[in-house]
Amino acid sequence: MEHFTFKHFIGIDVSKNWIDVHVQQKSYRVDSKDIPTFIDKHIVPLGKEILCVLESTGGYELKAIIPLEEKGIKIHISHPNKVVSFAKARGKLAKTDKIDAKILADYDAFIKENEIRPPVSKTQKELEWYNGRLRQLKMMRQQERCRLVYPEMLENIKSSIQRSIDHYEKEIKTIEKELKNIIQNDDVLLKKYNILISMSGVGPCVAQTLLAELPELGQLNKSEIAALVGVAPITRESGKSAKKSSIKFGRFEVRRMLYMSALVGTVHSARMKSFYQRLVEKGKPRKVGLVAVMRKMLITLNAMLKSGENWKE
After folding, report:
1. Which fold has domain 8-115?
2. Over the stretch 68-110, which tens digit does the pLDDT of each residue have?
3. Integer CA distances (angstroms), 212 to 59, 132, 157, 248, in order
4. I want to staple 13 with a disulfide (CB 3.0 to 4.6 A). Which of 23, 101, 121, 128 is the partner?
5. Where are the alpha helices (DSSP H) in the chain?
6. How do residues 109-141 score in pLDDT, each as one tens digit?
């Protein structure tokens, strides 16, 4: 990653209709429509040595992220829990949008360089949006399918539910086609996609999710990528207390897909099956063994994208 020494730390608290920005010891409230103009006037003139930090807010943060990235400004998307813990450690118990922006600006200075979000291309943004929509549609289809199990349900209600399922099926096929087109029409994404699906247990859905949800794959070292996804065991020991290590945080959707890949990999991949069986024979619980396979698959996929080589059993 290109090295930067940041001179200006900017905190941006995002709401539905506006953002609160703390820059150079001043706080501003900016309407959504005025964000690009504000960036040009107050942030761009500060130069390249800038880091902006925002909290993940379920999509509202994109109204600031997109114009910032278009200007080449470095961004960090912070997990809300980390910011809350930082605020408590600083004794900041009051909460307003203005205070949150100031806390985010202070939090900036403690961010490691490998946590900073690289600029995202237009194609990558499209991939993220389509993959997210596909996940939503599949979830809604499954919810409707679950509603069909009640035997006492009126036939008219069943017909209504089935029409809804049919609609979701049609939309899913449409989105899947769009996702496929995005990958097929981008040489870099297509190469990565073909490398990913060469591994036993990694199918089209998993590969698409990795490309959309984990663009850092192939760019970080094995410890960083494991921690980013949340498959690195977290040890919890204090005094005589020694709780079992567990995995948490990270990118849930990527972990969910890797879990499914691990289930398939331990059956159809000789390497993963052997690795899993050795762990079980040593007395490791089967779930712990599957998590270890998830981590091994992720690290291997990371190395494959780095080297540009396909999977070899």
Report:
1. Nucleotidyltransferase; domain 5 (3.30.420)
2. 888 888 888 876 767 777 777 777 766 677 777 888 878 766 7
3. 15, 9, 37, 21
4. 101
5. 35-38, 62-70, 80-89, 97-107, 122-147, 155-184, 187-197, 204-213, 222-229, 252-268, 270-281, 286-307
6. 677 666 676 667 788 889 989 999 999 999 999
